[in-house]
Amino acid sequence: MADRIFTFFLVLSSISLLFSPILCSSSSSSLNLSLVRQAKVLVSIKQSFDSYDPSLDSWTVPNFNSLCSWTGVSCDNLNQSITRLDISNLNISGTLSPELSRLPSTSSQT
User: Fold this and answer.
1) Would you tell me which of 3, 7, 81, 97 could form a disulfide with 48, CB atoms 3.0–4.6 Å apart?
2) Do 6 and 51 meet the contact criterion of CB atoms below 8 Å apart?
3) CATH number of residue 35's parent domain
4) Which phi and psi (to 5°) does residue 107 adopt?
5) Is the pLDDT of residue 29 over 70?
6) What single-letter DSSP state applies at residue 103?
7) Which domain of life is it from (predicted)?
8) Using an 8 Å Cβ cutoff, are 48 and 96 in contact?
9) How buried is residue 45: exposed, middle or buried, by Cβ count under 10 Å (0-12/13-18/19+)?
10) What 3-state DSSP class applies to 29?
11) CA-to-CA dists, residue 93 to 49, 70, 74, 90, angstroms
12) What is d(CA 34, CA 64) in angstroms, rounded to the nearest whole number?
């Protein structure tokens, strides 16, 4: 009886180890999609400005992996989502894009 229980847990552990990389890559892929989506929103916001400080040049979609270190951007470190956008004192002129509303749970300072 003890051998059967041991075998059962051994098989169960093997199966969970087999699927572990799949679950991790799925989570990583989901995080990347979220970062890309947020980067696209910020780039759209930047493009709505008539002029802006050169420090916003880092706001590019290919640079999405470092989104949380972009000028004026603060993120929740756990799930890498934007929590605050401070674009004050960046010599911005133009209209603030309604795309800003596509960033959930974001406070902004303009």
Assistant:
1) 97
2) no
3) 3.80.10
4) -100, 150
5) yes
6) S
7) Eukaryota
8) yes
9) buried
10) helix
11) 6, 19, 22, 9
12) 10
Q: Checking DSSP bridges between strand 107-109 and strand 49-51, what pairing results, if any? A: unpaired
Give the sheet arrangement for strand 81-86, strand by strand.
73-76, 81-86, 107-109
pLDDT per position as a tens digit, 30-51: 768 889 999 999 999 999 999 9
CA nearest neighbour of 106 among 73, 71, 78? 73
Paired strand residues for 76:
81
Q: For residue 84, count CB atoms less than 10 angstroms from its CB and return exposed for 0-12, middle for 13-18, buried for 19 or more.
A: middle
* Domain range enclosing 59: 2-109
What SS3 class is residue 32? helix
The whole model's pTM is what?
A: 0.67
Residues counted in the chain: 110
Q: Give how many domains the chain has, as a whole number.
A: 1
Side chain identity, residue 84: R
Flag whether pLDDT at 94 surpasses 50. yes
